[in-house]
Amino acid sequence: MRPDLILIGVVGRPHGVRGLVHVHSYADDSSTLETYKALVDDQGRSWSLRWRGSDGVAELRDAQGQPLADRTAAQGLVNTRLYVSRDVLPEPEEEEFYHADLIGMEAQEEGQSLGQVVMVHDYGAGASLELTGGLLVPFTRACVPAVDLAGRVLTIVRPVEVAGEEGRGVGGAKAAEPSA
């Protein structure tokens, strides 16, 4: 995939028999997907989108302006990722980042490499970064105090629970010593 493209949505299951689909938007405001002249998929095909309700149902049109013909055509696009060119997106605010900017960055703790960011997870309770090898790090200022976009390096400070220090649990409490 081209580095100048940002994942903006994913096509879900068909809706009805007339070629409509559910689309999961990654935009802060899903209505903006209608404003982009071209959404591009993994195969390089261009699409435009028009919402058909408030529940994520949309009509997709190909580069020639033709809507999907029927449910079978819609089914063929399930899990298709939709991207938009980076240059049409607003620059992120200070302390905000596009996931695409973080993926591939080198994560370092005290000068030692912990691997690269392979995925950014956000299930609503706060984002976390998945590093090569499966390590998950909360994407908070305490755990990621510095992000150097130009140098492509993140500074990581793992909490005790993640660092795996022996004898320490949640909140740094030590296991009770047996009494004699």
Count of separate DSSP helical elements: 3
* Total DSSP E strands: 12
Query: What does the radius of gyration come to?
Result: 21 Å
Broad CATH class of the largest domain: Mainly Beta
Q: Any idea what the shape is?
A: elongated
The fraction of residues assigned to DSSP E strands is: 35-45%
Structural class: mainly beta
Q: What is the CATH superfamily classification of the largest domain?
A: RimM
Strands ordered across the widest β-sheet: 3-4-5-2-1-6
CATH topology of the largest domain: Elongation Factor Tu (Ef-tu), domain 3
The low-confidence parts are 165-180
From the structure above, extract its key features:
six-stranded antiparallel beta sheet; six-stranded mixed beta sheet; disordered C terminus; Elongation Factor Tu (Ef-tu), domain 3; elongated; 180 residues; SH3 type barrels
What does this 3D model show about the protein?
Keywords: Chaperone, Cytoplasm, Ribosome biogenesis, rRNA processing. It holds the Pfam family RimM. This protein has 180 residues and is mostly beta strands. The protein folds into two domains: 5-88, RimM (Elongation Factor Tu (Ef-tu), domain 3); 99-160, PRC-barrel domain (SH3 type barrels, Roll), CATH 2.30.30. 7% of the residues lie in helices and 36% in strands. It is built from three helices and twelve strands; from the N terminus they run E-E-E-E-E-H-E-H-E-E-E-E-E-E-H. Strands 3-4-5-2-1-6 form a six-stranded antiparallel beta sheet. It has a six-stranded mixed beta sheet with strand order 10-9-8-7-12-11, with no helix packed on it. The model is unreliable at 165-180 (pLDDT under 50).
